[in-house]
Amino acid sequence: MTRKVLISAVTLCLAAVAGVSAASEPVDPISPAKEINLAQAELGKKLYFDPRLSKSGFISCNSCHNLSMGGTDNLKTSIGHNWQQGPINAPTVLNSSLNVAQFWDGRAADLKEQAGGPIANPGEMAFSHTLAVDVLESIPGYVIEFKQVFGTGEIDIDKVTVAIAEFEKTLVTPNSRFDLWLLGDADAISANEKAGYRLFKESGCVACHNGSALGGTSFQKMGVVRPYETTNPAEGLAGVTGKDADRFKFKVPTLRNVTLTYPYFHDGEAQTLTAAVDIMGRLQLGREFSEDETAKVVAFLKTLTGDQPTFALPTLPPSSDQTLRPTPFE
Questions:
Q1: Hey, is 270 helix, strand or coil?
Q2: Of these residues, 25, 42, 113, 124, which one is catalytic?
Q3: In b/e form, how buried is each residue of 12-35, taking b as 16+ CB within 10 angstroms?
Q4: Which of 62, 91, 155, 316 is 20 to 30 A (C-alpha) from 235?
Q5: What are 102's strand-pairing partners?
Q6: DSSP 246-261
Q7: Strand, coil or helix: what is 295?
Q8: Comparing C-alpha atoms, which of 299, 304, 320 is closest to residue 30?
Q9: Per-residue pLDDT tens over the stretch 118-158
Q10: Is 202 exposed, middle or buried (0-12, 13-18, 19+ CB in 10 A)?
Protein backbone atom coordinates (compact mmCIF):
# COMPACT_ATOMS: atom_id res chain seq x y z
CA MET A 1 0.00 0.00 0.00
CA THR A 2 1.43 3.40 -0.97
CA ARG A 3 1.83 6.19 1.56
CA LYS A 4 -0.86 8.26 -0.22
CA VAL A 5 -3.38 5.42 -0.12
CA LEU A 6 -2.52 4.69 3.51
CA ILE A 7 -3.13 8.31 4.54
CA SER A 8 -6.48 8.31 2.69
CA ALA A 9 -7.51 5.08 4.43
CA VAL A 10 -6.61 6.45 7.85
CA THR A 11 -8.55 9.65 7.14
CA LEU A 12 -11.65 7.69 6.17
CA CYS A 13 -11.41 5.57 9.31
CA LEU A 14 -11.08 8.67 11.49
CA ALA A 15 -14.12 10.20 9.82
CA ALA A 16 -16.16 7.06 10.45
CA VAL A 17 -15.18 6.92 14.10
CA ALA A 18 -15.83 10.62 14.68
CA GLY A 19 -19.13 10.63 12.82
CA VAL A 20 -18.04 13.69 10.86
CA SER A 21 -18.62 13.87 7.12
CA ALA A 22 -17.16 16.77 5.16
CA ALA A 23 -19.81 16.12 2.53
CA SER A 24 -22.54 16.96 5.05
CA GLU A 25 -21.04 20.37 5.86
CA PRO A 26 -21.42 23.62 3.90
CA VAL A 27 -17.64 24.01 4.03
CA ASP A 28 -15.17 21.78 2.20
CA PRO A 29 -11.54 21.16 3.13
CA ILE A 30 -8.95 23.05 1.11
CA SER A 31 -7.16 20.73 -1.31
CA PRO A 32 -3.47 21.02 -2.23
CA ALA A 33 -2.74 22.63 -5.59
CA LYS A 34 -3.27 20.32 -8.55
CA GLU A 35 -2.41 20.37 -12.26
CA ILE A 36 0.19 23.11 -11.95
CA ASN A 37 2.59 23.87 -14.80
CA LEU A 38 5.72 23.89 -12.67
CA ALA A 39 7.89 25.70 -15.21
CA GLN A 40 5.36 28.50 -15.60
CA ALA A 41 4.86 28.70 -11.84
CA GLU A 42 8.61 28.99 -11.21
CA LEU A 43 8.89 31.82 -13.72
CA GLY A 44 5.76 33.40 -12.28
CA LYS A 45 7.30 33.32 -8.81
CA LYS A 46 10.20 35.42 -10.04
CA LEU A 47 7.86 37.89 -11.72
CA TYR A 48 5.68 38.06 -8.58
CA PHE A 49 8.66 39.19 -6.53
CA ASP A 50 10.32 41.38 -9.18
CA PRO A 51 9.97 45.14 -8.41
CA ARG A 52 11.37 46.03 -11.85
CA LEU A 53 7.84 45.60 -13.20
CA SER A 54 7.06 48.92 -11.50
CA LYS A 55 8.10 52.44 -12.46
CA SER A 56 9.85 52.94 -9.12
CA GLY A 57 11.70 49.64 -9.22
CA PHE A 58 10.48 49.24 -5.66
CA ILE A 59 6.94 47.80 -5.80
CA SER A 60 6.24 44.18 -6.69
CA CYS A 61 3.12 42.00 -6.45
CA ASN A 62 4.43 40.90 -3.08
CA SER A 63 4.42 44.49 -1.78
CA CYS A 64 0.64 44.53 -1.36
CA HIS A 65 0.15 40.75 -1.26
CA ASN A 66 2.97 39.85 1.08
CA LEU A 67 3.33 36.08 1.39
CA SER A 68 4.92 36.52 4.81
CA MET A 69 1.78 38.33 6.02
CA GLY A 70 -1.12 36.16 4.91
CA GLY A 71 -0.96 37.34 1.30
CA THR A 72 -1.89 40.94 2.12
CA ASP A 73 -0.20 44.02 3.63
CA ASN A 74 -2.18 44.51 6.86
CA LEU A 75 -2.92 48.13 5.93
CA LYS A 76 -6.35 49.73 5.66
CA THR A 77 -5.57 50.60 2.06
CA SER A 78 -2.34 49.88 0.23
CA ILE A 79 0.53 52.21 -0.64
CA GLY A 80 1.15 52.82 -4.32
CA HIS A 81 3.67 54.70 -6.47
CA ASN A 82 4.98 57.93 -4.89
CA TRP A 83 3.36 56.97 -1.59
CA GLN A 84 -0.14 57.28 -3.03
CA GLN A 85 -2.91 55.99 -0.80
CA GLY A 86 -4.74 53.13 -2.43
CA PRO A 87 -8.54 53.30 -2.74
CA ILE A 88 -9.33 49.94 -1.17
CA ASN A 89 -8.07 47.21 1.15
CA ALA A 90 -5.79 44.66 -0.52
CA PRO A 91 -7.51 41.25 -0.53
CA THR A 92 -5.39 38.23 0.23
CA VAL A 93 -3.82 36.36 -2.68
CA LEU A 94 -3.94 33.11 -0.70
CA ASN A 95 -6.56 30.73 -2.12
CA SER A 96 -7.49 33.42 -4.66
CA SER A 97 -7.71 30.75 -7.35
CA LEU A 98 -10.97 29.67 -5.64
CA ASN A 99 -12.63 33.07 -6.22
CA VAL A 100 -15.44 33.52 -8.72
CA ALA A 101 -13.65 36.67 -9.92
CA GLN A 102 -10.80 38.91 -8.80
CA PHE A 103 -10.76 42.29 -7.01
CA TRP A 104 -13.47 43.39 -4.58
CA ASP A 105 -15.66 44.51 -7.48
CA GLY A 106 -14.97 41.46 -9.66
CA ARG A 107 -13.62 43.48 -12.58
CA ALA A 108 -11.08 40.78 -13.46
CA ALA A 109 -12.50 37.42 -14.49
CA ASP A 110 -9.50 35.38 -13.37
CA LEU A 111 -5.98 35.50 -11.94
CA LYS A 112 -4.42 36.06 -15.35
CA GLU A 113 -6.52 39.16 -15.99
CA GLN A 114 -5.91 40.42 -12.46
CA ALA A 115 -2.13 40.07 -12.74
CA GLY A 116 -1.88 42.70 -15.45
CA GLY A 117 -3.96 45.32 -13.66
CA PRO A 118 -1.60 46.67 -10.97
CA ILE A 119 1.38 46.92 -13.35
CA ALA A 120 -0.36 49.54 -15.51
CA ASN A 121 -2.31 51.24 -12.72
CA PRO A 122 -0.87 54.75 -12.13
CA GLY A 123 -1.79 54.50 -8.45
CA GLU A 124 -0.09 51.16 -7.94
CA MET A 125 2.99 50.07 -9.91
CA ALA A 126 2.59 53.01 -12.32
CA PHE A 127 4.26 51.33 -15.29
CA SER A 128 2.83 50.22 -18.62
CA HIS A 129 2.62 46.76 -20.11
CA THR A 130 4.89 47.87 -22.96
CA LEU A 131 7.58 49.16 -20.62
CA ALA A 132 7.33 46.09 -18.40
CA VAL A 133 7.88 43.83 -21.41
CA ASP A 134 10.77 46.05 -22.57
CA VAL A 135 12.43 45.61 -19.18
CA LEU A 136 12.04 41.83 -19.26
CA GLU A 137 13.34 41.62 -22.84
CA SER A 138 16.46 43.52 -21.79
CA ILE A 139 17.32 40.95 -19.12
CA PRO A 140 19.11 37.93 -20.67
CA GLY A 141 18.13 35.58 -17.86
CA TYR A 142 14.45 36.26 -18.44
CA VAL A 143 14.76 35.87 -22.22
CA ILE A 144 16.29 32.43 -21.70
CA GLU A 145 13.68 31.38 -19.15
CA PHE A 146 10.72 32.56 -21.23
CA LYS A 147 12.11 30.53 -24.14
CA GLN A 148 12.50 27.47 -21.92
CA VAL A 149 8.98 27.82 -20.52
CA PHE A 150 7.00 28.97 -23.57
CA GLY A 151 9.17 27.71 -26.41
CA THR A 152 9.95 31.21 -27.64
CA GLY A 153 12.13 34.05 -26.46
CA GLU A 154 9.46 36.54 -27.48
CA ILE A 155 8.02 38.09 -24.35
CA ASP A 156 4.59 39.67 -24.17
CA ILE A 157 2.21 40.66 -21.38
CA ASP A 158 0.06 37.60 -22.03
CA LYS A 159 2.92 35.26 -21.14
CA VAL A 160 3.83 37.41 -18.14
CA THR A 161 0.33 37.24 -16.68
CA VAL A 162 -0.04 33.52 -17.48
CA ALA A 163 3.12 32.82 -15.47
CA ILE A 164 2.15 35.00 -12.51
CA ALA A 165 -1.31 33.43 -12.41
CA GLU A 166 0.16 29.92 -12.49
CA PHE A 167 2.33 30.76 -9.49
CA GLU A 168 -0.65 32.22 -7.65
CA LYS A 169 -2.56 28.97 -8.20
CA THR A 170 0.00 27.27 -5.95
CA LEU A 171 -0.83 29.59 -3.03
CA VAL A 172 -3.45 27.42 -1.38
CA THR A 173 -3.43 26.73 2.35
CA PRO A 174 -4.62 23.21 3.24
CA ASN A 175 -4.43 21.43 6.60
CA SER A 176 -6.01 24.02 8.86
CA ARG A 177 -7.20 22.61 12.17
CA PHE A 178 -10.77 23.00 10.92
CA ASP A 179 -9.94 21.02 7.78
CA LEU A 180 -8.46 18.26 9.91
CA TRP A 181 -11.71 18.19 11.87
CA LEU A 182 -13.73 18.04 8.64
CA LEU A 183 -11.55 15.12 7.59
CA GLY A 184 -12.29 13.19 10.74
CA ASP A 185 -9.94 14.29 13.52
CA ALA A 186 -12.47 14.92 16.28
CA ASP A 187 -9.84 16.49 18.55
CA ALA A 188 -8.47 18.97 16.00
CA ILE A 189 -10.70 21.75 17.32
CA SER A 190 -11.96 22.38 20.85
CA ALA A 191 -15.51 22.27 22.17
CA ASN A 192 -15.55 26.07 22.28
CA GLU A 193 -14.43 26.26 18.65
CA LYS A 194 -17.07 23.73 17.61
CA ALA A 195 -19.67 25.85 19.40
CA GLY A 196 -18.45 28.83 17.41
CA TYR A 197 -18.86 26.89 14.17
CA ARG A 198 -22.42 25.88 15.12
CA LEU A 199 -23.23 29.51 15.86
CA PHE A 200 -21.60 30.54 12.57
CA LYS A 201 -23.96 28.18 10.73
CA GLU A 202 -27.12 28.76 12.76
CA SER A 203 -26.81 32.55 12.60
CA GLY A 204 -26.62 32.56 8.81
CA CYS A 205 -22.95 33.53 8.30
CA VAL A 206 -22.52 30.40 6.21
CA ALA A 207 -25.07 31.63 3.64
CA CYS A 208 -22.28 33.78 2.15
CA HIS A 209 -19.16 32.27 3.67
CA ASN A 210 -19.35 28.70 2.38
CA GLY A 211 -17.45 26.33 0.12
CA SER A 212 -13.79 25.47 0.46
CA ALA A 213 -12.69 29.12 0.75
CA LEU A 214 -15.57 30.14 3.07
CA GLY A 215 -16.32 32.95 0.66
CA GLY A 216 -15.14 34.32 -2.65
CA THR A 217 -17.96 32.77 -4.69
CA SER A 218 -20.63 35.47 -4.61
CA PHE A 219 -21.23 39.22 -4.43
CA GLN A 220 -23.31 40.55 -1.55
CA LYS A 221 -24.46 43.98 -0.45
CA MET A 222 -22.52 45.46 2.44
CA GLY A 223 -25.25 46.53 4.85
CA VAL A 224 -28.31 44.35 4.33
CA VAL A 225 -30.24 45.05 7.54
CA ARG A 226 -28.61 48.37 8.37
CA PRO A 227 -26.59 50.64 6.07
CA TYR A 228 -22.82 50.46 6.33
CA GLU A 229 -21.36 53.90 6.96
CA THR A 230 -17.99 54.60 5.38
CA THR A 231 -16.07 57.42 3.73
CA ASN A 232 -14.52 54.99 1.24
CA PRO A 233 -15.67 55.88 -2.30
CA ALA A 234 -15.70 52.30 -3.67
CA GLU A 235 -18.99 51.45 -5.40
CA GLY A 236 -18.48 47.71 -5.57
CA LEU A 237 -19.97 45.66 -8.39
CA ALA A 238 -21.92 48.70 -9.69
CA GLY A 239 -18.63 50.16 -10.90
CA VAL A 240 -18.37 47.18 -13.27
CA THR A 241 -21.99 46.57 -14.28
CA GLY A 242 -23.25 50.16 -14.15
CA LYS A 243 -26.38 48.88 -12.40
CA ASP A 244 -27.64 50.81 -9.40
CA ALA A 245 -28.88 47.53 -7.89
CA ASP A 246 -25.24 46.43 -7.64
CA ARG A 247 -24.15 49.47 -5.65
CA PHE A 248 -22.24 48.48 -2.53
CA LYS A 249 -22.14 44.84 -3.54
CA PHE A 250 -18.69 43.41 -2.99
CA LYS A 251 -17.17 40.00 -3.48
CA VAL A 252 -17.56 38.06 -0.25
CA PRO A 253 -14.03 37.70 1.12
CA THR A 254 -12.57 34.33 2.01
CA LEU A 255 -12.32 33.61 5.72
CA ARG A 256 -9.37 31.28 5.25
CA ASN A 257 -6.35 32.54 7.24
CA VAL A 258 -8.52 35.42 8.44
CA THR A 259 -6.46 35.93 11.60
CA LEU A 260 -3.57 36.94 9.32
CA THR A 261 -5.43 39.24 6.93
CA TYR A 262 -6.49 42.16 9.14
CA PRO A 263 -7.80 44.83 8.90
CA TYR A 264 -11.17 43.75 7.51
CA PHE A 265 -13.76 44.81 4.93
CA HIS A 266 -13.19 46.61 1.64
CA ASP A 267 -12.29 49.82 3.48
CA GLY A 268 -10.18 48.15 6.15
CA GLU A 269 -12.20 49.81 8.91
CA ALA A 270 -12.59 46.76 11.16
CA GLN A 271 -9.26 46.38 12.93
CA THR A 272 -10.03 43.18 14.80
CA LEU A 273 -11.97 39.97 14.26
CA THR A 274 -14.12 40.82 17.27
CA ALA A 275 -15.15 44.10 15.66
CA ALA A 276 -15.73 42.45 12.29
CA VAL A 277 -17.98 39.73 13.75
CA ASP A 278 -19.98 42.31 15.72
CA ILE A 279 -20.50 44.54 12.65
CA MET A 280 -21.40 41.64 10.37
CA GLY A 281 -23.91 40.36 12.91
CA ARG A 282 -25.69 43.69 13.19
CA LEU A 283 -25.52 44.88 9.57
CA GLN A 284 -25.87 41.64 7.64
CA LEU A 285 -27.87 39.40 9.95
CA GLY A 286 -29.74 41.81 12.21
CA ARG A 287 -28.32 40.02 15.19
CA GLU A 288 -26.66 41.45 18.28
CA PHE A 289 -24.10 38.84 19.28
CA SER A 290 -23.35 38.72 22.98
CA GLU A 291 -19.74 39.02 24.09
CA ASP A 292 -19.64 35.28 24.67
CA GLU A 293 -21.16 34.49 21.27
CA THR A 294 -18.72 36.79 19.51
CA ALA A 295 -15.82 35.13 21.32
CA LYS A 296 -17.03 31.69 20.20
CA VAL A 297 -17.29 32.73 16.54
CA VAL A 298 -13.84 34.32 16.71
CA ALA A 299 -12.46 31.13 18.25
CA PHE A 300 -13.85 29.17 15.28
CA LEU A 301 -12.38 31.63 12.78
CA LYS A 302 -8.95 31.12 14.33
CA THR A 303 -9.08 27.46 13.32
CA LEU A 304 -9.08 28.41 9.62
CA THR A 305 -5.36 29.17 9.30
CA GLY A 306 -3.80 26.56 7.05
CA ASP A 307 -0.30 25.70 5.91
CA GLN A 308 1.28 28.87 4.57
CA PRO A 309 3.21 28.76 1.28
CA THR A 310 6.83 27.88 1.86
CA PHE A 311 9.57 28.05 -0.74
CA ALA A 312 13.01 29.50 -1.30
CA LEU A 313 12.91 33.12 -2.33
CA PRO A 314 13.71 33.37 -6.04
CA THR A 315 17.02 34.76 -7.23
CA LEU A 316 16.08 37.33 -9.86
CA PRO A 317 18.20 37.57 -13.02
CA PRO A 318 20.34 40.74 -13.07
CA SER A 319 19.54 43.70 -15.26
CA SER A 320 21.70 44.40 -18.28
CA ASP A 321 23.24 47.71 -19.32
CA GLN A 322 20.24 48.18 -21.60
CA THR A 323 17.60 47.68 -18.90
CA LEU A 324 15.49 50.76 -18.23
CA ARG A 325 16.46 52.19 -14.86
CA PRO A 326 13.74 52.87 -12.30
CA THR A 327 12.45 56.37 -11.58
CA PRO A 328 11.16 56.12 -8.01
CA PHE A 329 10.72 59.86 -7.42
CA GLU A 330 8.87 60.86 -10.57
A1: strand
A2: 124
A3: eebbeeeebebeebebbbbeeeee
A4: 62
A5: 108
A6: GTTEEEPPP-TTGGGS
A7: helix
A8: 304
A9: 999 999 999 999 999 999 999 999 999 999 999 998 999 99
A10: exposed
Residue segments in the chain with a per-residue pLDDT below the cut of 70: 1-23
Secondary structure (DSSP) of 82-128:
GGPBPSSPPPP-TTGGGSSSBSTT--BSSHHHHHHHHHH-TTTT---
**DSSP element (H, E) containing 266:** none
How far does the chain reach from its first CA to its final CA, in angstroms? 62
CA distance 124 to 102: 16
Q: Are 176 and 188 in contact (CB under 8 A)?
A: no
Q: Tell me the Ramachandran region of residue 323: left when phi exceeds 0, alpha when psi lies from -120 to 50, beta otherwise.
A: beta
In the chain, what are the domains? 38-169 (1.10.760.10), 177-304 (1.10.760.10)
Residue 261 contacts residue 71 (beta carbons within 8 Å): yes
Q: In 3D, which of 65, 252, 83, 82 has the Cα closest to residue 171? A: 65
Alpha-carbon span 181 to 199, nearest angstrom: 17
How many other C-beta atoms lie within 10 A of the C-beta of residue 322?
11
Of residues 86, 26, 22, the one with CA closest to residue 206: 26
- The model's pLDDT over 1-17, given as tens digits with 9 standing for 90+, comes to 333 333 344 444 444 44
Cα(301)–Cα(174) distance, rounded to whole angstroms? 15
